[in-house]
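Dear support,

Our group has been running a series of protein-ligand predictions, and this particular one with iron/sulfur cluster is the one our PI (initials K.S.) wants archived with full inputs and outputs. We had some confusion internally about which version of the output was final, so please treat the block below as the authoritative record. The input we submitted was:
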Amino acid sequence: MAISRKMVLHFPGRLVDRPIVSHLVRAYDLDFNILKASVTPEEEGLLVLEMTGKQDDYDRGIEYLTKAGVKIQSLSQDVTRNEERCTHCGSCVTVCPADAFQLESSTKKVLFLNEKCIACGLCIKTCPPRAMKLHF
Ligand code: SF4
Ligand code: SF4
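Confirmed final output from the archive:
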């Protein structure tokens, strides 16, 4: 029976140019739907995708990714913002690959659109007052 999972793959800089995803498709007979792709300022590659295939192939594919040094994050995690801490500095707006932050021009405030968030965790490191939190 085929299974389907959404996830975020974090590629360290040394792996960004390697054909890891195409190897997965060929070697493990998995299908992909890429929902988002970006390279962060620290040259980390980030891929949000839905992976579909037979359970065995899926498990072997995940093992291959982990051994190759790719960090895999499930999308079941939740991200929240502590509104009292947020200073509306805007640092998170450019790092978010999902456009989950929006600068409201009338108030100059940064809105957090939780429904767009894919829980990649990038804003957590970037936010100076540590207003963003990832819940496992
Ligand atoms: S980086 Fe942090 S403090 Fe700055 S706007 Fe974003 S959530 Fe608010
Ligand atoms: S965790 Fe932060 S940077 Fe990542 S998608 Fe959610 S709001 Fe954007």
